[in-house]
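Appendix B. Raw example, untouched.
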Amino acid sequence: MKKTKSGTKPRKKRNLGKFKSAIEQYCDQQLRKAGLDFRYEEKEYVLMEKFRYPKRYLKMTAKRKTLSDRSNSILQPIRYTPDFVAADESWVIETKGYLHSHHDFSMRWKLFLHYLVNNNMECDVYIPKNKPQIDQVIEDIIKQQHADNR
């Protein structure tokens, strides 16, 4: 097996089907096993609408040495699609394994929590990063459902 530039062996690619990671696949299996009704990456939240910046806006680009004039252009919305959302939106699970440096997830997650608060969406949120934490999350969801049904 070839080594990468850093001298480590590259990871073997696994067939994960529609999932982006093995932890997502495990979470899906455990949610199904528990009989919980959920959706996988179906619900998209628009955290910030698109807008036009009315003043002068010069921006660096990767391919040009000079600044690009983006004045009066439309800036795209910020969207967020959680991994797993309860069918009744009572809980959200975002599985996270390794986070690359300079990853924008932290900011997007805070904006998502802010969105939930501003829209009076009272749901439980979870960010497990391994199998035991996913098992703990599912136990908590089931416990909450039993408490809510009393």
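End of appendix B.
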